[in-house]
Design goal:
The protein contains 1 helix and 10 strands; from the N terminus they run H-E-E-E-E-E-E-E-E-E-E. Strand 6 and strand 7 form a beta hairpin. The two termini are about 45 Å apart. The protein is mainly β and about 240 residues long. The chain has one domain: Porin (Beta Barrel). The chain is elongated. The chain has an 8-stranded antiparallel β-barrel with strand order 1-3-4-5-6-8-9-10.
Length: about 240
């Protein structure tokens, strides 16, 4: 009886080993991803002014855990855009005179990040040349550029005025950004190891990217998180 149990155990281990050994331990590839991006404020009187187009590109990697489970990682360069508005106070200088105007600042933010996703990727068995996948995890991103086109809107003697300038926001945005990642899609195999990837991935921001306090009310701390949904198009070998 003990011999039969040992033989069955060895047989099971052999089957598992054979199945896993048919899956490459590492797969690497490239991706491009058009995206819809927005910035969601979380401060009093701060408002989101709509979604904008974004883009990302990068390298992807699947590291095999078992036959149908993988550690998905890589690195991406993300171009994220978002527009917000908030109360703002500006000192305007005209020669030797200066006046303080209170109005609304509309900030069209242009953010660039290097993003490192850390996800669990789950795949179905292959159906002919198709394989479906889902992934969940989080990502950590590093800010490498932050600019904004800002339009200050105010009123003088009943007349509405506005001034538009471009400004560097590097000192006013955080270096790090964290997001939850949720996605899914399909892989179409063009040979035994190479496949084309088409998927949808949602990055839900969970960390504040703004620094400082509001210029009108210094008790209001500036808080906002970026989010985006991307159409993932890639090839992996």
């Amino acid at each position: 009886m003990k011999k039969i149990t040992v033989l069955l155990t060895l047989g099971s281990l052999l089957i598992v080993h054979t199945a896993v050994s048919q899956v490459k331990p590492f797969r690497f590839g490239l991706k491009v991803a058009p995206a819809i991006t927005w910035v969601s404020p979380d401060s009093e009187d701060y408002e989101n002014k709509g979604a904008q187009a974004g883009f990302s590109w990068g390298f992807i990697s699947d590291i095999t855990i078992t036959e149908n489970y993988f550690f998905g990682t890589g690195f991406n360069v993300n171009y994220l855009n978002g527009k917000i508005s908030y109360p703002y106070q500006l000192v305007m200088v005209n020669g030797s005179d200066s006046t303080t105007q209170t109005g609304t600042m509309v900030s069209d933010m242009k953010l660039r990040y290097i993003d490192i996703p850390l996800t669990l990727k789950m795949k179905t068995n292959r159906f002919d040349n198709l394989q479906y996948y889902g992934q969940i995890g989080f990502s950590l991103a590093f800010n490498i550029k932050a600019k904004a086109e800002e339009t200050f809107q105010y009123r003088v003697s009943g007349n509405y005025m506005s001034e538009t300038n471009e400004r560097d926001l590097t000192d006013e945005t955080t270096l790090l950004k964290a997001s939850l990642v949720l996605g899914g899609g399909i892989e179409y195999y063009i040979d035994n190891s190479t496949s084309i990837i088409v998927g949808i991935t949602y990055y839900n921001g969970i960390s504040n990217i703004m620094k400082g306090y509001n210029t009108v009310d210094e008790d209001v701390k500036q808080k906002a998180t970026p989010h985006f949904i991307e159409l993932t198009l890639g090839i992996i070998f």
